[in-house]
Amino acid sequence: MIHRLKEVRKELGFNQTDFAKHLGITQTAYSMIENGNRPLADKYVKVICSAFNVNENWFITGEGEMFLSSPYEKEFIDIFSRLAPETQQYLLLMAKELLKTQERLLESKDKQQAGGNGGGDLE
Predict the structure, then answer these.
(1) In this structure, what is the dihedral angle of CA atoms 103, 109, 115, 119, given to the nearest 10 degrees?
(2) Can you give the pTM of this predicted structure?
(3) What letter would DSSP give residue 67?
(4) How does 20-51 read in b/e, with b if 16+ C-beta sit within 10 Å?
(5) What SUPFAM superfamilies would the database entry show (predicted)?
(6) 16-33 pLDDT, tens per residue?
């Protein structure tokens, strides 16, 4: 589990000092945990998994995916839930249009890479 602790920290882009602050411990205490000199208390496992959307089963056993979902999904859902219903509808419409645009761009890129027309037409 110790190597997964370090893997999560690095994946999230934290140094030991900043990650330790999220856990409410000192960098020295965190370093001792990450180096295997101190056990990682269950409460910190819960904090890490809850705060960063880490899959607890993966964190403990190594099985499954590191994150339960995209690290951005939780933030997006929090923001979405605070919007008025009319604004939620508008955001959903915009997200659908963005997805269509992304799909067209990816199709165009695939055609170009496959030796297609090379012109980048989006139809």
Answers:
(1) 100
(2) 0.56
(3) B
(4) bebbebeeeebeebbeeeeebeeebbeebbee
(5) lambda repressor-like DNA-binding domains
(6) 999 999 999 999 999 999
